[in-house]
Amino acid sequence: MAQAANILIVEDDAHIRRLLRATVQRAGHQAVEAADARQALSLLDIEKPDVVLLDLGLPDRDGLELIGPIRARSNATLIVVSARDDSAEKVAALDLGADDYLVKPFDTEELLARIRAALRHQRAAAGGEAPAVVEAGGIRIDLDHRRVQRGGTDVHLTPKEYGVLAELARRPDRVLSHAQLLKSVWGPAQEERVEYLRIAVRGLRQKLEEDPARPRLIVNELAVGYRLMLRDEG
Ligand code: CA
Q1: Tens of each residue's pLDDT in the chain, 234 residues
Q2: 58 alpha carbon to ligand 1 midpoint, in Å?
Q3: DSSP letter (8 states) at residue 101
Q4: Residue 218 sits in a domain of what CATH number?
Q5: What is the distance in A from the centroid of ligand 1 to the CA of 84?
Q6: Nearby residues for ligand 1 (ion, Cβ within 5 Å)
């Protein structure tokens, strides 16, 4: 039984709004709708949504400008659903505090999977039980003991490789931007050294992926960042 959530849909296109509403309702969630930024902010206070689906092209304000105010007023998971398939824009959204990004036209199953992942993390956070052990595809990551195993055997990682893996494992199924990963693992001064990150990810894939050339655990979000895939597809 899926967990029901209250979902705020911020979208000026009535057709897409209906599609989003039907999709989340089909999964047993409640939907409230806002057609512009002003309405979105007032509904945010009234409805206290668990998840916000945010369009960027809004009539009264750019959706990117809404991310900060939403973050400041709500703990809702913020998923940008935008027609803008521009990596700079995705990075901006994530760095402003969005949790995820989906490009229109989106796959409704993919959207529901992202919502499920969001709710799973919220539940864990609310219980104060940040998952200390994360398991995916035969890999076991023990965040308390800084221990990584593959098929029951310890894997030796460099400190940076471990740092990147741990950051991703703390927010599984969500994309983290290059800058977010670089800032937390290498420090704010290294935020732009994407090559550092590439080297660490290459090392991780060689040690953890069945086929490092076709990664299924640590996947690329082209020109945006990386995502640790936990959930079953579909
Ligand atoms: Ca729009």
Answers
A1: 457 899 999 999 999 999 999 999 999 999 999 999 999 999 999 999 999 999 999 999 999 999 999 999 998 999 999 998 888 999 999 999 999 999 999 999 999 999 988 888 888 777 766 668 888 878 999 998 999 999 999 999 999 999 999 999 988 888 999 999 999 999 999 999 999 999 999 999 999 999 999 999 999 988 899 999 986 543
A2: 5
A3: E
A4: 1.10.10.10
A5: 10
A6: 12, 55, 57
